[in-house]
Amino acid sequence: MNAQQIKEGAQQYLANTYGRFDLVLERGKGATVSDTEGKEYIDLGSGIGVNSLGFADEGWVREVTKQLGKLAHTSNLYYSAPCVELAKVLCTRTGMKKVFFCNSGAEANEGAIKAARKYSLERYGKGRHTIVSLQNSFHGRTMATLSATGQDVFHQNFDPFLEGFRFAPAGDTDKTLSMLTEDVCAVMIELIQGEGGVVPLERDYVKAVADCCKKRDILLLVDEVQTGIGRTGKLLCCEHYGLLPDIITLAKGLGGGLPIGAVLFGEKCENTLGPGDHGSTFGGNPAVCAGALAVLSRLDDAMLGEIEKKGAYLRESFEKLPGVQSVTGLGLMIGLQPAEGIAARDIVTRAIQKGAIPLTAKSKVRLLPPLAISWEELEKAAAILSECFEEGE
């Protein structure tokens, strides 16, 4: 099919749930992708933070292909080496104790919610089931994770939502702590609110909430679906905050392009979920786990250091640029707030026309390039995007 046929087919056969840009992608290598006409673009979104190693990384392809030739799928009724090896690597590198695998960030957050409520039920009985999340948060699009999401725009059309969620103002320590009443079993946070506009939480605020949770045996759940697996220059964003939560959720960049989610349990709740409490047909899929192992094998100290340097380069490139009001984020998770009167989507559209593909997040232009993006690709993309901001004034 040519580009026009693909777009017409999408209109006819796909549910109209996405506001797509007018771009049909066909193949890629590294951080560069081309459309059906052969025009090249530098990817600054990595499939919304998924393609950690870029497109067609040789090591990643080799490991996934090798596993597909041996065992593509079994189920969790049996054991398989890639699943166990990946769990071991994650626990060893994060300090967590056990892992549950699923298929996405929303599923991982569902698992975290269930575990938190069971943990509290077993120790304190019924009625202590409320989960406090933050205003402006985003935790997924299933019914439970939508219920945990603190943005009104997502709370439309699907009533009734699940009960037992409460929203605290992000950054307001006194109000947040006042909401941690006797019926609360967990606090669920993103250390950088990604879909909320790349908004980092202040360290003092996070410490105060974490200390209160520890004192009252309230579980601290950290959603690292977007911030985890090297995105911020550390394996986990928690490391920037000196934090070891009770539960961490991962997805996106972990699979390097294949669907995976993971719930990491700390010592307090490592044995909370037992047989039959939770499950996932595809969770721990051998081929997907092989891909995740390939990603983690590349994320050594040298690569994490490069991510921090590249993030610093992007921040410096845009902090004093006319047309950019502010720059937020850590590592290769950057939010660019256009000056008043400039729409983020217009910047993205203009960038695509010039050969770079950024994202949006609320009113900001969001940058989530592949972690393995080359300096040449990064500098070229930054120049294109700078030009777009200057034209937008």
State the low-pLDDT regions, or none: none
Strand content: 15-25%
Give a quick account of the main beta sheet: strands, pairing sense, barrel closure: 7 strands, mixed
Report the span from N to C terminus.
39 Å
Q: What's the tally of helices? A: 12
> Please, what is the average pLDDT?
97
Secondary-structure content class: alpha/beta
Strand order of the largest sheet: 4-12-11-10-7-5-6
Binned, the helix content reads 25-40%
Radius of gyration: 21 Å
Write down the secondary-structure element order.
HEEEHHHEHEHEHEEEHEEEHHEEHEEEH
Shape type: globular
Number of strands: 17
List keywords for this structure.
single chain; 393 residues; alpha/beta; 4-stranded mixed sheet; globular
